[in-house]
Amino acid sequence: MRKARIKNEGEGWYHVVSRTAFQQFKFGAADRDMFVAMMRRVAQFCGVEVLNFCVMSNHFHILLHVPDPREVTEEELLRRISALYGSENARELRERWEALRKRRQHRTVEREQERFTRRMGDMSEFMKTLKQRISEYFNRELGHAGQLWCGRFSSTLVEKEELAKLYVAAYVEWNAPKAAMVAHPRDWKWCSYSA
Fold first, then answer.
1. 8-19 pLDDT per residue, tens
2. Is 0.85 topped by the overall pTM?
3. By C-alpha distance, which of 130, 131, 136, 138 is closest to 26?
4. Rg (alpha carbons) of the chain, rounded to whole number
5. d(Cα 38, Cα 52) in Å, to the nearest integer?
6. Is the torsion defined by CA of 15, 19, 185, 124 positive or negative?
7. Cα–Cα distance, 136 to 180 (Å, whole number)
8. What is the reported pLDDT for 1?
9. Residue 71: which H helix or E strand, with range?
10. Which of 71, 109, 110, 140 is 20 to 30 Å from 158 by CA-CA measure?
11. With bands split at pLDDT 50, 70 and 90, how would you rate the model's confidence at 81?
């Protein structure tokens, strides 16, 4: 039986990690570039903040801030949808919702919007979407077949104190030097220190 994730009610900081299946070194330079770009798009969609990250050859670390829940306006929802699904999809949704409202189908619009908003402001939804998108990229662009990820991701709830967050941030940033990939985090293109 799967163990439930420990999550804060409302705002929280999390150190999340996920590894490739069988410890295979799947991420080359172009893959890490794509990963960083996708991570930013998913974070924008979910309304979470990636404070620190490091993408290695077979795993990644993210220090993630999930803010207090707040209502998302329709304009912001469409902006977030555009970030992840593209501006054309956001435009089509806007037109669909306008047409539904003209036919007085307001509840249908609400249900469709809820399908998106319930995926926002949640660490698990962020990770699920990110890992799915990366898997789709590997399957589509690289002809990968089979399992990409080694099961679920791991997460640690980080205390609110600045010192705790700084400690985790340093741990995340120093992954590449610790693995002898580079001498200093500034030399590793796929970490927030360098970015």
1. 778 999 999 999
2. yes
3. 138
4. 18
5. 15
6. negative
7. 30
8. 54
9. none
10. 71
11. very high
